[in-house]
Design goal:
The chain has about 290 residues and is mainly beta. It folds into 2 domains: about 80 residues, Roll (SH3 type barrels); about 190 residues, Porin (Beta Barrel). It is built from 3 helices and 16 strands. The longest helix has 20 residues.
Length: about 290
């Protein structure tokens, strides 16, 4: 009888140990243990089914929240906070995660094609610390369609021809990353200025003719947009800014276009809408990792 009891206990222990061994155990950083059947481990996530409901839904947790996985075959995997990402950074709000190339700080040279739609193409560099970013840029060449609008208020029939000049400015941004993805939203403030030359033909009454003139403007706009950051360095930002610009025109004119020696100088200032588009393509270079 005693041998029969011992044999029964041995069988029960074997079944129990087999049951325990048939499950994975995820140990969280807060000490909690999750009994599971792990189905997938990626660079940033752990996917699993509950051990007591193997046919149920698949759950997903952040890899950075887990300390270790003990698999059903007895092996253990100590996790490295999202495969070396910046998830060790303090505070969930500040974690750069995938969207910042796994860095706390970076600098990103870029070219902004969107400026050609409005106030001229921009070549610049963005400096980012966590979610905050600031950049400086220069503009060059033909400075965009918005310059015609800036000149429309100067009482001329044909606003401008042969626009050429240069400019620059800066932008401040706050990135709002979307969870567990390479996508972000952002809000920003842009300030830019331009100084360029243009040519006026005559006003609507042919009462005077203008020569080459100098126009300066400063525009400030609030905007927002969408960004895709590859996690490897490459990124694209697309958005727009709108606000107010102040233009100042210095021009030379003549009341008798066919005569010589009767040219006069004058100036004019006015406010007008500021609108520009952002379509920046760049590459972020890491400066600080955690």
């Amino acid at each position: 009888m005693k041998k029969l009891f011992l044999s029964f206990m041995l069988l029960l222990s074997t079944v129990f140990m087999g049951t325990v061994a048939a499950q994975d155990v995820i140990t969280m950083k807060n000490g909690e243990e999750v009994k599971a059947n792990v189905t997938e481990v990626t660079s940033s996530e752990i996917k699993y089914k509950r051990f007591d409901n193997p046919d149920g839904p698949t759950y997903t947790i952040r890899k950075s929240d887990a300390f270790m996985i003990k698999y059903k075959n007895g092996t253990k995997e100590v996790l490295e906070s999202g495969n070396g990402s910046a998830s060790n950074d303090e505070g969930g709000f500040w974690k750069p995660n995938l969207w910042t190339n796994q860095t706390v700080m970076g600098v990103a040279p870029y070219y902004d094609l969107g400026g050609h739609v409005a106030t001229g193409g921009r070549l610049g560099a963005e400096f980012r610390y966590r979610r905050f970013a600031g950049d400086v840029f220069v503009k060059f060449g033909g400075l965009g369609l918005m310059n015609h609008i800036y000149l429309d208020d100067s009482d001329t029939e044909s606003p401008s021809e042969d626009i050429s000049g240069f400019g620059g400015g800066f932008t401040l941004k706050v990135y709002l990353p979307l969870a567990s993805s390479h996508n972000t939203l952002y809000v920003g403030l842009m300030n830019e200025w331009s100084s360029y030359s243009c040519f006026f033909a005559s006003d609507s009454y042919d009462s005077y003719s203008a020569k080459w003139d100098q126009c300066d403007y400063t525009g400030t706009g609030l905007g927002f947009g969408y960004g895709y950051h590859s996690g490897k360095g490459f990124f694209v930002n697309a958005g727009f800014y709108f606000g107010l610009a102040v233009a100042n025109l210095e021009y030379t004119y003549s009341n008798h276009p066919d005569s010589y020696g009767s040219w006069y100088k004058d100036d004019d200032s006015w406010a007008c809408p500021f609108f520009t588009v952002e379509l920046a393509i760049g590459w972020e270079i890491p400066l600080m990792r955690k």
